[in-house]
Queue: 2 jobs
Job 1
Amino acid sequence: MRAKGDSRKVSAPAGDWAVAQTNFFKSSCYGASAMEFVLSEKTLQEIDRVLDEDLLSSGASCAMIVDRSGYLIANRGDPSDMDVVALAALSAANYGVTEEIARLVGEDNFSLLFHKGKNESIHYTKIGEDFFLITLFAKDVSLGLMRLKTAKVKTHLTPLLREDI
């Protein structure tokens, strides 16, 4: 979530820490797999632009970039008063569980992770090894359109997220 000015506010689970300062975002995670990354303000602005132009303009109500540990990196759109930090953490756990289920049945991964609700749906897209995109959209928005748009976002953000790490 964006704080006043150029800083990012990040909430971290107990025992972990994250630091947000003007001009960059730094996160360190300790657990099953340690990961540390720094994203420049320029990269964060580009992520915001891509999410706005490719997803929100196509009907998504909310789009988030989350790391594998559940840290919320970017959040665009209207999350309808939900706790986006909790959604990010739970989604990371959900994605991790789904990857393990895929392995148990002999798959590398499932190509589509999607939850359809009565009014709102959630589409997950893995971006590289360390990040994923969560896209929320209403029942009147086509899943096919969201799949096309999230594929475009993935293509654009994959090299962008790699260059700052």
Note: The domain at 42-164 is CATH 3.30.450.30 (Beta-Lactamase).
Job 2
Amino acid sequence: MPEFKDRNDGSRALINVDSVQAAPYFLSGDGLNLGMWDGGRVYSHDGFAGRLVIKNNVSVSNHATHVAGTMAGNGANSNNHYLRGMDTLAYIYSWTYQGKTWDQIATEMKNAVTQDNIVLSQNSWGDIGGGGLYTVGARLMDQVVREKDISVIFAVGYGGHVYNSMWSPETGKNLISVTATTKTGEEYFDASSGPCKDGRLKPDISAAGVDIQSTWPDNGYDYLTGTSMAAPAISGVIGLMIERYKNRNNGQLPSASLLKAILLNTATDIGTAGPDYFYGYGIANALEAIRTIDAGNFLTDEISQGATQNYLLTVPAGIDHIRVLLAYTDREASVNANPALVNDLDLKLISPNNTEYLPLTLDPANPSAPAQPAVNHRDNVEQVVVNNPLAGNWTVQISAPSVPFGPQEFTVTWKLPTIRVRVDQKLADGQTIVDSIGRWEGGPNFVLYEAPHTFTFEVSTTEVLRGAQKVISNQKYHKWSIDDTVLNHRAFNITWDFPDELTSEFYPTKPGIVLKNAFLSAPPGSDPSGDVIAFKDPWLIDSTDAAHGNNPLNRGMQAIFRTQESPFNPDYTNPHNGYVYQGVFLNQPYTGNNPVFYSVRAVDNQQVTVNGKSITYDWESWSYDPDS
């Protein structure tokens, strides 16, 4: 008998699920049956009351209950349902892996597709260890995907976030292997990492898995950390993608390769540029995945041994980069096969001037090195990225150098970012100080504006904001800092030339909290009115107050940007670092600007004049009033 081991709040925000649960999409997993296997059965909970089907009547598992809530809980018994999961109307079918062999589990999954109409298989468990090998579990899970054409999702386990630490069956080619990050998209130090023994890229995708609050027995909610918490978030995203595809294609289900291709190609790149052995293709982006489905930016076809097939892709002018990805469900290999790839397809892009571009390929002998363009004979997923592409007709070329089991079906998907926002920083007299280019993906509530639309930061002559680095599309945020020589921090305004109001959307997770920035050194009774600056919603606040479990408090509301009185500056640093407080910008839909991080920061000191006397106020501490 194999030995198995078990493997949610800020989880939605990081992968942009809030945006597709809201208008105009209103996705909820309605009508879908989601299968999950875990170390026991899911405990009944108001968060999925009437939507839980127990298939194995075994002992209750806290772990399974938590996972189920991330995937499909509706947030019942939490304030404004803020602890909801991804697919809030989907049915949850609960099995256990306990007491079963890999063959039995694979058979059970196949039968579940036929008998229970499950559309995916969620798994936050797996073998202990595996050494990156293509094991019996990996082979059988690949077989489930190929024979039943459903997505099988596995958490990657706990290999210590070092290279060559992949467990099993996450080494499978056709399943989706999920790693974890923090809720701000930063490193989680215990996740397994690639490469596989044969050099293949794993994990595939990332989601939040640290301090995830989700359903718990007895209608409660509690925190857990691990890749186990990240995998159900990805399963939930896939469920929403299935729902959207079905609604737009007369009830037809999408193929597993189509879902995987779109999920990976629309991910937000983090870590080393391009796909990497720590984070795969990056953090999932539900909104961009749904937009790709809506736009029809994909094709499916099949190819036989030795053939080459070309497809036209028209690239308009003004695109900063294009991403094209090939994915296919490969034939399962024999146990411990090296290489594990059976059918080998290759992707190539050819520009209008006949320049050829190859897929980004990693070097398993140098795993920390960025992926480089090269022919890939290891992976059944390949991605070509071209920066500043020529406008015109491009050729997507698929070739089949080795297809012993053919013909081979495949999916190609593409992403053409089109939003270009120009950020100008100016003095009050209109003089430009900094001129940076920002390119972001659009939010759901605004028209997608093309260049040359701009928005401008207007600051006083005694305050200078400057861009710390160039903005790029896959970063989606920009660092700003106060000029070191400026001591007098005054108000600044944000103006824009769009017909709609500039808004930020946040999801409130706690009652209104006022965060106060207190300054000292003023004579008694002479404190000016500006010596305490308070921010109430829309800021995300990290609190170490024991009354809140020493956990970060996600703050926020929907609010129009308006003049904010300094002293503070938008900055992006580590969370709860001295006088800096950081959070996650959940969604800022104006022309697609969707920054990942932001913070409220106190300046070291503030000089004010009281009764004709100049007084220096030194920063003391942060405080907050949860009842304000």
Note: The helical segments are 10-14, 17-21, 62-72, 102-116, 136-148, 227-248, 256-265, 286-295.
